[in-house]
Amino acid sequence: MNTNALAFLGLTGIVGALAGLLMFATLRIFSAARQRQQSGRAGGADSDTLSVALEDAIVRLRAQERATAARAEASERLSGEIISSLTSGLLVVGLDGHVRIMNPSARRLLDLPDASPAGNYHDVIGEPALSQTIDECLSNGRAILRRTIHLPEGKRAASRFGVTVSPLFDGAGQLHGAVCLFTDLTAVQQLEEQLRLKQSLATVGELTAGIAHEFRNGLATIHGYGRLIDPAALPPNFRPYIEGIRAEAVSLGEIVTNFLNFAKPAQLALSDVDLRMLCDRVAEDVRTEARALGGDVTVQGEFGPIQGDEVLLRQTFSNLLRNAIEACSGASITPQVTVDSTVDTKRGTCTVTIDDNGPGVPEQARDRIFQPFFTSKKHGTGLGLALVQKIVVSHNGRVSVGTSPAGGARLQVVLPTI
Ligand SMILES: Nc1ncnc2c1ncn2[C@@H]1O[C@H](COP(=O)(O)OP(=O)(O)O)[C@@H](O)[C@H]1O
Ligand SMILES: [Mg+2]
Q1: Which of 160, 171, 292, 363 has the fewest CB atoms within 10 Å of its CB?
Q2: pLDDT for 87-97, tens place per residue?
């Protein structure tokens, strides 16, 4: 073999080796591509699953978020409804004194307008006794339970509040405000007063009726002997004495009879009473007297349906109107007397107000005019208003005295309606 043949053989070997290498490389490239293709398909499936799961989770989260928001809204609505439906007044104040919550009942009880501006509770409430109770809780962080506070008379319908103030603490136990709940105790107080009056009237009746009877018997005897003595048979200078004894026995007899009428237990003959007609009739009875003095008696307003004892109620209004006219005539004033009635359907009451333009009842006598035998009149019995009070109380009502717009007396009778 020559060198050319050897060179050719060597060249062929090199080409063969190169071709083998190329083939191997191509095969590797194909297999790598296939592998890549296969692994690419698997990766796609994974990411698809992942995104589906993610979307699912997002949808679920959104639904949960909506449900939570709806629950929060419902619970906010419920607490709003509870706060506004509470019959008690509710006040929530911060440590800075700012009113955070004030429900409609609180506004009603405090006579505040619906859209009263929020601010410091001292200014907003306008009731020092209530503000002081909240001050106390905020200053020492201690709860105040069912305290009764008295409100100044005449300012608003309520005269007593029952108050509970609880301190508000945050999660760290720091005081940051107070919750004040208050209710109107006026009706409870009036019921207590009614009961107390009924009991004391019953006691007075029981204690005194026996003595009064004994008195009346003794007086009847004195009166009888007095009538047996013939003044004509006496020396002239003794005659005035026997007349005095007779007159005094008669007048004492009347007092005792009146007192026994007052002291005896009230037995009501109940029926439906047309209060308007009743007041009209009573006014008619005393109008002649008022007109004789140049004055008048007027009846006006709305009268509610009442169940009561017609005879006793007539006696009540007659006593009140007569007192009004007597007060005016006693002070030489032309009597202008008005009977004005209003009905409170919410409270179920009818309030009859008798106003006159007389001298009025002095402040210091107001507690006493309903007591038996209190009179400022020369020939008064002092039993008229005591009887009025007894009759009104036995009808589960109440009577009070004040000042009329004309500066005279205002007597007010409140009776429950049916
Ligand atoms: N309308 C009135 N104006 C002023 N004072 C009154 C009026 N009504 C009652 N009073 C006072 O109350 C007192 C008690 O009244 P009352 O019990 O009816 O007894 P009396 O009429 O016999 O004095 C009266 O004496 C009077 O001082
Ligand atoms: Mg009288």
Answers
A1: 171
A2: 899 999 999 99
